[in-house]
Amino acid sequence: MAPSLPAPPSCAGHPGAAAGWRCEHCEALLCPACVETRRAGTVEYSVCVRCQGTANVLLRHRSHRSLAARLPGALRFPFTAPGLQALAAVVIVLTVLRMAVVGIVIIAVLPLTLALGVFWAAFFALVRSAARGDAEPEGPGFTDLVRDNLVPGLMGLCVSGGVFLPALVRAWGLLESASPDEVLKRVTHPVDTLSAPVFWADPLFWGLAVLGLLWLPWALLVAAMSRSVFAALNPLRALACIRAVGRDSRVVTAVFLLLALLHGGLHQVAEAVLGLPIVIVPRLIAEALTCLVPFAAANVLGLVLFVHGDALGYLPARDHLEPTLGDTAPQRGPVALRESQAEPEAPAPDAAGVEAQVAELGAAVEARDVAKALALYGALHVLPRLKLLPSHHLFIGQAAAVEGDFPLSVKALEAAADTAPEEPTAPRALVLLARVQGEKLGNTVRAEELYRYIVHRYPDTDAARFAHARLPPAA
Prior knowledge:
The protein is mostly helical. It is 62% helix and 5% strand. The chain has a 3-stranded antiparallel sheet, with no helix packed on it. Strands 3-4 form a two-stranded antiparallel ribbon.
């Protein structure tokens, strides 16, 4: 029985409701009824309805929902719409390549090699997609024959063959010598080969085979993380993974043993289907049957990385945090524009008045008079961005962030970047904007977008290096 996990904290004002935010000012825990979403330009942020302080989203580790509870979704993946699409694409390619295999060994090597690469490239792509929690799995690129086909195929073959190498050596010793054509048949029809009576009476072979089967999921997991055959076949790495995953390692091992039994049964059915006197269709069905279990297994391994990736060293800990209340939003939305304009607005200043305000604001910035600069900047009805220096916008953005006025900080930093995108102030403003969005407003998605833009737009700068360090590693 899995240990009970602590319940989410309760709201300070509604003890019966779960809290999903914490006020930065009064430090109260808040439920959706105690939080209001406000809008400043294109930016939305949350505030406490009591003290109007910024409400930060409470986060918790993904493991709050156990791996066992998530397993049914991973095992159902081959039968979902994205899973069926990926399965159909791989099955069609494998069918075409396997139909190109003829009896001559030399000619058969090329299509078998390509088929092997397609299968393992799809397998590792599914693992990495599931590790990110993507609803739509990525497909292998296949833009580079060596990198996208031969390397994954070789890695998958070496890892899956390496864990069973002791059993394979024992099996080879039990089999009689054979011609090259018979060897090819043994490789392409492993179920028929292992059903030979000579294997059933040899407990050493089966003991080695079970040992390899227990090792296989952890070797494949290390291969997906490190993309190294040597690391994957290091038994110490497998033991380290088992220790890091903890109790869930037993669940993963049990699931893989059941999947192995199912895979063997489906192989038998596929061999029977191939005997049907129909063109192409039996081959398609057989390939689909033999790919079902690997697709499910890939999603199980990806689920292990999704839940325990930080303990395994695959992703930083911050990437395994999610909102305590999931997608639940505050009950109070941003005030409609017409409602926010209920009070009559003061008339906008004339051109001379604007010039005077801009000059006064510039003087306050130069004098580092934060209070006066913030008051003047916020009082302008229509911000004359082109009349203020980018450094002045940047100063206001920094000062507003320090004072806790994050909507004003966002507004000023956006202006600093938009006013003069080619100036050195632009990347600095964007870095500060990303930090405000992610660290103060809890908008991590927007922050990551900004960091990626900085890396793309301003490469080889200190800002780009800082942004790159804040981005999650590419999968």
